[in-house]
Amino acid sequence: MAELGLNEHHQNAVINYMRFARSKRALRLKTVDSCFQDLKDSRLTEDTFTVDEVTEMLDGLKIVVHSEVESELINTAYTNVLLLRQLFCQAEKWYLKLQTDISDLENRELLEQVAEFEKTEFTSSGRKVNSEIIKPKLAPLNEGGVSELLSKEITRLQDENDKLKARLRTVETQATSALEEKLKLEKFLKDLKKVPEDQKELEKKFQETAAYRNMKEILTKKNEQVKELRKRLSQYEAED
């Protein structure tokens, strides 16, 4: 029995589509046949025709058949687009990105495989012949198994992303606060260096005080804190 390498659910979906396509093809072929029959009934009423009359009839028939075939090809293309849209919409609900290979559409080996599959499914000598179209309920994926795990994983990643964003905002706030304190201390020390010459002695004495040493120590720690916060901030931004 010819197979397409699909699971039973997907293979049944393919069979339904092929049944739909066969019915549309048969209907269009009947329309083309009727074009020829209409010509016979309306124009072939005489025993002999001139070359011009035959040419006129054939040209008219060509126009009608061309229109019917073109209409069917366009409709088939649009139908395929709608089928792809159904599949893509289901995939996007689960954050999946499906891929297609257009070159496979002209792969003779694969086309012959599909032809053999159709022959097996829809001829009296094949596995079954059933004109009833199965209409399963359209659903993105089954509620259990892989789909449930995928849904849980998406939820977990979203929660983790929210927590990471919150930590990032906290680190940004801490880094901004530490940087502001650092700038204030630097400004204070810079202002001290601008005192007049007669007060240099006062600056020297102040530098020898515990308050000055504490301030220098605080500034050093703030510098280290700012470096560490910037390092953590860049790490979180990269993860986000």
Can you offer a commentary on this structure?
This protein has 6 helices and no strands. It is an all-alpha fold. Helix 1 (about 10-45) runs antiparallel to helix 2 and helix 4 runs antiparallel to helix 6 (about 210-240). The longest helix has about 45 residues, at about 145-190. Residues about 130-135 and about 135-145 have low confidence and may be disordered. It is found in: Cytoplasm.
Task: Name a few traits of the molecule.
single chain, 240 residues, mainly alpha, 6 helices, 75% helix, Leucine zipper transcription factor-like protein 1, cytoplasm, coiled coil, LZTFL1
**Termini gap:** 51 Å
In what range is the share of β-strand residues? under 5%
Number of domains: 2
Mean pLDDT: 78
Order of helices and strands: HHHHHH
Count of DSSP H/I helices = 6
Radius of gyration equals 40 Å
Uncertain runs are: 129-134, 137-143
Work out the number of β strands.
Answer: 0
Biggest sheet character: none
User: How does the helix and strand content classify structurally?
Assistant: mainly alpha
Helix content: over 70%
Overall, the morphology is elongated
Function: Regulates ciliary localization of the BBSome complex. Together with the BBSome complex, controls SMO ciliary trafficking and contributes to the sonic hedgehog (SHH) pathway regulation. May play a role in neurite outgrowth. May have tumor suppressor function.
Subunit structure: Self-associates. Interacts with BBS9; the interaction mediates the association of LZTL1 with the BBsome complex and regulates BBSome ciliary trafficking.
Subcellular location: Cytoplasm
GO cellular component, one term: cytoplasm
